[in-house]
Specification:
Blueprint: E1 2-5, H1 7-14, H2 19-34, E2 44-46, E3 53-58, E4 61-68, E5 71-79, H3 80-86
Parallel strand pairs: 1-5
Antiparallel strand pairs: 2-3, 3-4, 4-5
Length: about 90
């Protein structure tokens, strides 16, 4: 699958210091690249009210992304209580 990393994601990642969390996130990125079926990944949830917005839970953090036509645009990676204020 084609993955596009948005600038907002890069800014979010620069703020994270937890190495274990970043390793888990790297594994999720690999899973997204290798999968042909997005819904084969168990932690993917569709965001209600937004037809192309999805999230993946990683501990207390959420990875927000858009999915359409076999293309994933990863937009945000924030704590659970912050991501829903800015994504989608």
């Amino acid at each position: 699958m084609e993955i596009i990393y948005l600038e907002s994601l890069v800014k979010d990642l620069k703020k994270i210091k937890d190495k274990k969390l970043l390793n888990n996130l790297a594994k999720v990125f690999l899973n997204l690249e290798e999968t042909d079926d997005l819904f084969g990944i168990s932690s993917v949830k569709k965001m209600s009210g937004h037809p192309e917005a999805y999230r993946i839970r990683i501990g207390d953090y959420r990875l927000g992304f858009y999915y359409s036509d076999k293309k994933i645009e990863i937009a945000r990676f924030l704590k659970r209580n912050d991501i829903y204020k800015v994504f989608p």
